[in-house]
Amino acid sequence: MKPIRVLKKLKGLLLLKDKFDWMIVLIPVIITVLGIMTIYSATRPIIGVKHPAFYIRQTIWLIIGIVSMAAVSLFDYRRLIKLSYFIYIFALILLLLTLVVGHAGMGAQRWLRIGPIGFQPSEFFRICLLIAIAGYLSRQISPLRSIPFVVLIGVFGVLPFLILYLQPDLGSAILILSMVVAVTLIKGINRRLLVTSVVVIIVTAPFLGNVLWKEMKQYQKNRLVAFINPKVDPKGIGYQIEQSKVTIGSGRLFGKGYLKGTQGPLRFLPEKHTDFVFAVFAEEWGFFGSVILLALYALIILRGFETALYAKDDFGFLLATGISIMFLIYLSVNIGMAMGLMPVVGVPLPFFSYGGTALVTNFIGIGLLNNIRMRRYELFY
Amino acid sequence: MNRETPLRLLTICTVVIFSVFLIRLWQLQILKGDQYLEQSLRNRVRIFRISAPRGIIYDRKGVKLVKNVPYYIASILPDVSEAEIDIEGLAELLGMSEEDIRKKLKGKKGQRLEPIRLKGGLDFEDVARIEARRSDFPGLIIETEISRYYNFGKTAAHVVGYLGKPTKEQLSMEDFKNLPEDTMVGRWGAEAMFDKQLRGRAGMKFVEVDALGRQLRTLRIIPPEKGEDLYLSIDINTQIVAEKAFQRRSGALLAIEPSSGEVIALVSLPSFDPNMFIKGIKPKQWLKLKRHPGHPLINRVFQSQYPPGSVFKLITAIAAMEEGLVNKNFKVHCKGFIEVGQWRFRCWKDRGHGIVDMKRAIVESCDVYFYELGRITGIDRIAKYAYAFGFGRPPGLGLSPEKKGLIPTTSWKLKTKGRPWYLGETFNAAIGQGYVSVSPAQAALLISAIANGGTVYKLQLLKNAEPEIISRLVMRPETLKTMKDALYGVVNQKGGTGFRAYSEHFSIAGKTGTAQVVALSPNERNLPRDHAWFVAYAPSSKPEIALSVFVEHGGNGGEAAAPIAKRVIEAYLLERDTDETNKGS
Q1: Contacting A residues, span 127-166, partner chain B, CB-CB under 8 Å
Q2: B181-190: pLDDT as tens digits
């Protein structure tokens, strides 16, 4: 590249900076920092062993996430329309790869190892899926007709669902399917199609449910039973839910104070730095802190919807809506689970739970939202 | 593409979801917050008791009567779920029934922070056996409490007492509330009487545990407070001599300091070995003690009452003289009996004593003389003086339950028997027979009061306790002098009934008594019929010890009881002399 062009590019970047939506960029960073603090507290050892390095690794992932977010903000998102299918195929391949060479964790093959770094394609997959759906749907007329609808459900819904189900990662499979359905409904489908699919679902539901129940692993069944009746055996199946409620509740109005929580470090709460990290936060910061944290999440999601409303094009609208829905679904399922409102599904809390792939994926989502917002007044070229 | 409608729906959706979360947070953290906080505390905190060393009991010279020994208890931690407990194996290991274990575990789990105590009284071998197999039983621990070893065994058992699990009555008392199970408390003797002082206060250790039940760190320790040491007024050497002097006969002895009421020796025989109670007495042993014909668990000093026999003549004499009815020169001719109507009342000496005055009547214990005094004085006036010396009411030491004895009056008889009082009954009462009954403790109070000039002190079990006066009878000097002369004569004069108490070293004064036993049970047939009494004090000029001796079926008071009194007095005063010589040099 010639020096002049580089300079021009840099100047352009500087100008772009003024258009950054600082709100949507900074709030996730704040949440992530709170998350790292909570991970630090949750994993702190009580008797003098070394502090596990989770919080350091998460900090590194945060930096990677911020860089990814910035990078994703810089190019024009509309270029992704053309690339969307390649991105989707690439993500599908990664997902399939985990089935072949993946590393097992918690009885499921979810990991790919690249050198020292563990990588979870199912997390990365969801943002790729959203780009692909938005790309596909933006080219279809609204409301959707049956052929594109079938293609959409088949290629973007059932296919990844089956792969994730085989891992098995039922939680992600269901969440991703629900994302696809939600975005499809946003696009709009005609009434006849809607009625037909509802009828099909109702007719096949008992059969599918039966198959699903038979195929489910014992721990998954236990989680469901425990959700319906947590008192079955507080030390056994219902233990996680009960302890999560105890953890949250014991924070009361102002919390036990930072680094004063006991439920996590003493291992009464399982998955304290991943799935149940919200409970640890609520224990230490109380109702007061929890409300503030929830408000920050609400700001991101509502800002996302606003971004979608003013997006320059349908692709931007669909993508921004999809990303916001993704945040909303993951957040609802995670916090609902921690509060005992939903069965235990191993889903990370966006920006908060320990996990690098998810964090970077979510920052990419934020970067895209920022990108869409920045370019809402730009002319098409 | 319509953007507003779906986005509006989504926004409503978001608001609803967040509202649900807020309500749920409110419910969990504000409404139920305290409950969950407690639950999280219960998750992580375990409380262990640190038992307080019990106060040591010493005798008046500082000899240790007891020592503390560990008492082991097998307990189970409360966070072990019932399913994890191998009740069958536990029952075998601890030698308990499964039902017992279930009963102990039932209803206690999950609500407490302290271990649940399953079985106490384990000996060292049990502990070693359990420790070896502890890994098979999650949550099984050995707790240590403090129990006792009684250095002198059976000696002074009724004074020192023993420990045991609290009785139902004790548990309903304020002092014994909030005691954990298997806590040993004083059940008898000084251990029970001074339990509150001796017990001290148990400490507590708050330990933080994790979900795996590992004890991570001690959060707080409330150190135990040692119980107060006690110095009893008992002199253990005198006590040993006293118990030996009974030569395996049953009976009671109470020796006190006439100037204060402090108890020097307290004997009730047969006795028991308090060390049997240390690990929790076995039912078989308990039954054996309970059914023992000699009733070893009864403190005869306070819990038994007998006719005082001739000891009571002192009351009759004092009553007659103090009421101004007779003086010491009052004489009666004893021809061996006295006749009232068709009844003939005998003197113990068939031939009769001839003409006797007050002093000789006491020295030789002439019954006829006191029949006469009784006739002159009347039962109600005699009773008045008996009360003044502490008869007819419990002595109030509180070491054991107390009998109050019986001093009959005319109104008492009318009320209880519905019949008037007869003169013959006055005769019987005047020589301490018939309705009259006293406990050995009351007899000791009488002789102590005569020794100190008329003051009845409250009995004290602690050394250097503040003396308390129960009653004081101001006697005419003539009365007191006559009594003292007579009591001296009983032991030291020719013809005195208590000559067997004569000591070469000390001047002892005393009075014999023989309580007639009306009916004998078949297994008592080989024993002498009567109970023997002797009350004494010494040195006669300046009394330092006063005592009552009672020998069950000992026969004649002078023969059976007087020698015991002599030995006890000699032991006590000789020892005191040596102590003083040692102090002087």
Answers
A1: 142
A2: 667 888 899 9
